[in-house]
Amino acid sequence: MGDFRPRTVWLGHPEKREQRYPRNVINNQKYNFFTFLPGVLFNQFKYFFNLYFLLLACSQFVNELRLGALYTYWVPLGFVLIITIAREAVEEIRCYCRDKEVNSQIYSKLSTRGTVKVKSSGIQVGDLIIVEKPPRGVCYSILNHPFSSLIPGSCFLRTDQLDGETDWKLRLPVACTQRLPTAADLLQIRSYVYAEEPNIDIHNFIGTFTRGNATHSEDGDPPVNESLSIENTLWASTVIASGTVVGVVIYTGKELRSVMNTSNPRHKVGLFDLEVNCLTKILFGALVVVSLVMVALQHFAGRWYLQIFRFLLLFSNIVPISLRVNLDMGKMVFSWMIRRDSKIPGTVVRASTIPEQLGRISYLLTDKTGTLTQNEMVFRRLHLGTVAYGMDSMDEVQSHVFSTPHNSSLAASLNSTSKTPVSTAPAATKVRKTISSRVHEAVKAIALVHCVTPVYEANGVTDQAEAEQHYEDTCRVYQAASPDEVSLVQWTESVGLTLVGRDHNSMQLRTPSGQILNFTILQIFPFTYESKRMGIIVRDESTGEISFYMKGADVVMAGIVQYNDWLEEECGNMAREGLRVLVVSKKSLTEEQYQDFEARYIQAKLSVHDRSLKVATVIESLEMEMELLCLTGVEDQLQADVRPTLEILRNAGIKVWMLTGDKLETATCTAKNAHLVTRNQDIHIFRSVTTRGEAHLELNAFRRKHDCALVISGDSLEVCLKFYEYEFMELACQCPAVVCCRCAPTQKAQIVRLLQERTGKLTCAVGDGGNDVSMIQEADCGVGVEGKEGKQASLAADFSVTQFKHLGRLLMVHGRNSYKRSAGLSQFVIHRSLCISTMQAVFSSVFYFASVPLYQGFLIIGYSTIYTMFPVFSLVLDKDVKSEVAMLYPELYKDLLKGRPLSFKTFLIWVLISIYQGSIIMYGALLLFESEFVHIVAISFTSLILTELLMVALTIQTWHWLMIVAELLSLACYIASLVFLHEFIDVYFIATLSFLWKVTVITLVSCLPLYILKYLRRRFSPPNYSKLTS
C-alpha cells in the first residue's frame, strides 16, 4: 500500500486482485481512538508554556521543593487540560459524524445475485458500480455501459470538485461493451482493465481494456483489446448529467485523484498563540533572572542550588498558568459570537482555535467559480455594429425573429435561378440587408455554432421517450462543455429560435411558428485554448445551402472577418463592462468549394508528420474574409455584493489574489467585472512561457510595469517558480491584484505556501469546491463557501460561510474584535500575575531574601479564579467601535496588520505598570505596618483585589451589563469569603476604620496616576477610532 503500482482489474471480480488496495473511506480526523489522548497531550506539552507548568507541578512531589499544598499547582493545570481535551473531543466527534455520513452513502452494485446495495466504504477495486445522476462519484471508474445517454453511448459529467470547471465534459464508454444486451452481461464476459499507477494528474489517463470469451460460450467473440484514455473515465467527486452508467472501480480511498490532490489536514497554530508563547519565554527568562538575583544577594550561602529551585517555584506566577485557559475560553466565546451573528447567518466555526487570525489577514486568495461568481451565465448584449440590443430591448429582437419568414419556399425561391443553390450568395451580400434580416441571420448563427446538446428527461407527466419525440419544452435541459454556450442557446430560445434536437450528424431548430429546420453537420472544429475559436459547417436541408459559421475571441477573429471600423472599439467597451465577448461570423460555401475543402481536410488528417499543423492550415484556408454578423456579450453573474466586499477588503489593506482552474479570458473578465482590478489599473497578461529564457524576458517586461494587475496561467507560473521563484514572488507581491488561471489544486496550495514563506504575512484562502481544499487547508485561515459545488470545501475549512459577502463582516468585525480582545485579555492576565510576583519579590527582599510565600493555600488560587477571573474575562466583550463603524471604515483593520495591540512595546508598558502597582501595594502595606504579620496580608491582598477590579474598569472602552455584574460579583465573593479566611486574615481587623483608610490610600496611589495618564493620552494623542466614536 506504500508504493503505487499499475494494476490489472477484472470486471466484477474484486477477489482476483493482485495487490492490496486501500479502503474506500474519507477520513478528515486528526486523531483516532488510540491516538487521541496522546496526540492532544503532545500538542499541549510541545509548547514551552504548558511543559513548564507540568514540570512545576511534578516538582511538588519532591519534599525539599514543596511550597504548599499539591492542589495549588495540580488543580489549575488539570483544569486547563480538561477544557482543552473536551474542546478537541467535541471537534473530533463532529468530524467523525461528518465523515461517517459521507462513507455511509448507498450505491448500487452489479453482482451475480443481481443489483445489490453497498455503502461507499464497502466499494472495492473491481466492483461494477451503477452511477446515477444525483450523487457524486466516490471512486475512480471506467465507463462500460450507459443505460441512457445524450448522444447514443456517451454521457456528460461535471468535474467542478476537481478542477473548478462547472462545464459539462463528454465521456465515452468502452466501445466493445456497447453490443451487450444488458449491463448484467458485463459479469459474463471475462474482461479486465490494465490501468496506470495512481497519480495526481487529473487531465490524463492511460489504460487498456481486454475482452475475452464469454464464460458460457465456447465459440464466443475473439479477444478484443481497446485503448483507454481520459475520455473513458468517470472521476471520483464528479457528477453525471443524466441517465445511468455502469463503471468498473479502478482506484479507491487514498489512491483517488481527488484525494491525492488534497493535502492532509494540519494542526493550525495561530500567529497570536506563537506571539504569546514568545512572551511567556521572556517571562520565564525574567523568572530565572529574579531567582538568581535573590540567591546572589544571599551570597550563594548553604544549599544555594535548592534555593534557586525554591525561588523558581515561589515566583512561578510570573508565567501565568491561567493565561492559556483564559485565551482558550475567549476563543470559544468569539466562535459562539460568530455563529450567533444574525448579519452572517449560517456561518460555522470548525476551528475554534484561530479566530484571532481573521483580524490580521494580509493576503486573501479566492477561487472564482462559485465563490466570486454564481456560475450562471446571462446573455446581456447583442451588437450588430449599427445597432445594439441590451436586456431592456430583447423584445425588439424577438419581434424581428417572429416577423422574419422562415418557410423554406421563400428561401428556395430566392435561389431557384441557379442549379447551385448558393451561387448568388456572394452577390447578395452586396445588397444592403434590412435590420430584421440581419438580426435573424445573427440569431440563427448563434443557434447553430456551438456544441450544445438538448436532453429530454421525464418530469412526472411526460416520460422521456414521449418528451424527446415531441420536443417537450418543459422536459428539455441543455448540456454542453461550456456554460457560455448554454446561455447563448437559451437566449436564442427566449427570442423564438429553439434548439430542439442534436446528434453527431444533424441539428434541429424550431421557429416561432413551430416549423422544424433541419441542418446536417458536415464538419465541426471544436474550441481549443490555442485557437480561441470554434467553427461548424452545416447544410440547410430545406435549401441545400452550405454555411460555415465561426465564433471566437475578438483578438483572433479581428484578422478573420472582413474589414470594419467598429469591432475593436465595441469589443473594448463590452469588455470594460465585464462581459465575455464573442465575435460571430459566417461564410457561404458552394458545393464545389466544400468538396475541395473536405478532400484537403481528410488528406491532412491522414498525414503522419505535423498532422495538427497541416489540419490547422487547411481550416485557415476557409477562415478568410468572413462576414461579421454580430458580437455577443455574456455575463457570469457575480455573487451578491462581491464588488463592495472586495472594495472593503482592498481599503482594509488586504491584497486579493484570484486562483482559478478556469481559462484566461474568463478569469480576466471576472476580475474586471468584480472590480478586483479597478478601472484605472492596467492589466499585464503574462504570456505563455516554457523555457528559462522566455521566463527571464517576460519577467523583465513585467518589472517595467508599475501599479498593474498580473494575469498568469498555471503553466507559465510553474516555469517561473522553477527558475525564478524569488524574483517572481517579489514582483507579484507588489501587484495590487493577481489572477492565476488554469491552476491545479496542488498549485493553489503551493502559491499559498510561497506567500507565507516569502512575506511572513497571514493568508486567508476562500473556495467552494473540492479543488480548493488543499489551498484552504494550507492557508493560515481557510474559509469555505457553501455553494453549488457541494460542501467539500466548507467541511474542510476553518470557517464556513454561505456567501462571499459575509467575508467582509467576518474579517472587519469578528476578526478585528477577536484579535484586539485576545491581545487585551492576554496582557491583563500577565499584568495580574506580575503584580503578585512583584509583591512576593518585595516581601522576600525585605525579609532577608527568604524563600517564604507571601500568600498561601486558597488565597493564591482564589486570586486568579473567583476573585478576579470574571472581570478579567469580561474583557472578551469589550469593543472600541460599533460593528457598523468597523464595516464603514475598513481602514481601522489596516492598523491591526502591524500587530500593535500585542507588541513588545505594549508588553513592556504592562510590565512597568505591574511592577509599579505591585511595589506600591507591598511597600504601602509595609509602611502602614501594624503589630502583626497577618495585617500585612489583609491590607496588601485586599488592595491587590481592588486594584485589579479598578484596572479592569480602566481598560474597558465600551461597557456591557455583564461586565458590571462581573465586577460586583467578584467584590461580593471576596467580601463573603473573608469569613472563611480567618487563618490568613484577621476578620475583626478588617472591620476597623484603620483598615479601610489604609486600603483606600494604597489603592488610590496605585491606580489614580494611571487614570490621569489615560485621560491625558486620550486628550492629546487620541487613537484613530476615538474620532469615530465621539
Automatic annotation (TrEMBL):
Residue sites binding Mg(2+) per the record: 367, 369, 768, 772
InterPro entries registered for this protein in UniProt: ATPase_P-typ_cyto_dom_N (IPR023299), ATPase_P-typ_P_site (IPR018303), ATPase_P-typ_TM_dom_sf (IPR023298), ATPase_P-typ_transduc_dom_A_sf (IPR008250), HAD-like_sf (IPR036412), HAD_sf (IPR023214), P-type_ATPase_IV (IPR006539), P-type_ATPase_N (IPR032631)
Domain of life: Eukaryota
Domain (P-type ATPase N-terminal): residue spans on this chain: 13-73
Keywords: ATP-binding, Golgi apparatus, Lipid transport, Magnesium, Membrane, Metal-binding, Nucleotide-binding, Translocase, Transmembrane, Transmembrane helix, Transport
Annotated compartments: Golgi apparatus, trans-Golgi network membrane; Membrane
Keyword Ribonucleoprotein: no
Annotated membrane topology: Multi-pass membrane protein
Substrates-to-products reaction catalysed: ATP + H2O + phospholipidSide 1 = ADP + phosphate + phospholipidSide 2
Regions that span the bilayer: 33-55, 67-86, 274-298, 304-327, 829-849, 855-877, 907-927, 933-954, 961-981, 987-1013
Record: residues binding ATP: 367-369, 485, 527, 551, 580, 660-662, 742, 748, 771-772
Domain P-type ATPase C-terminal: 795-1022
Cofactor: Mg(2+)
GO molecular function per UniProt: ATP binding; ATP hydrolysis activity; ATPase-coupled intramembrane lipid transporter activity; magnesium ion binding
Keyword Nucleotide-binding: yes
Catalytic residues, chain numbering: 367 (4-aspartylphosphate intermediate)
Annotated EC: 7.6.2.1
Family indicated by similarity: Belongs to the cation transport ATPase (P-type) (TC 3.A.3) family. Type IV subfamily.
NCBIfam families assigned to the protein according to its UniProt record, in alphabetical order: ATPase-Plipid, ATPase_P-type
PANTHER family in alphabetical order: PHOSPHOLIPID-TRANSPORTING ATPASE IIA-RELATED, PROBABLE PHOSPHOLIPID-TRANSPORTING ATPASE
Name of the protein this chain belongs to: Phospholipid-transporting ATPase
Organism: Oncorhynchus mykiss
Encoding gene (name): LOC110492058
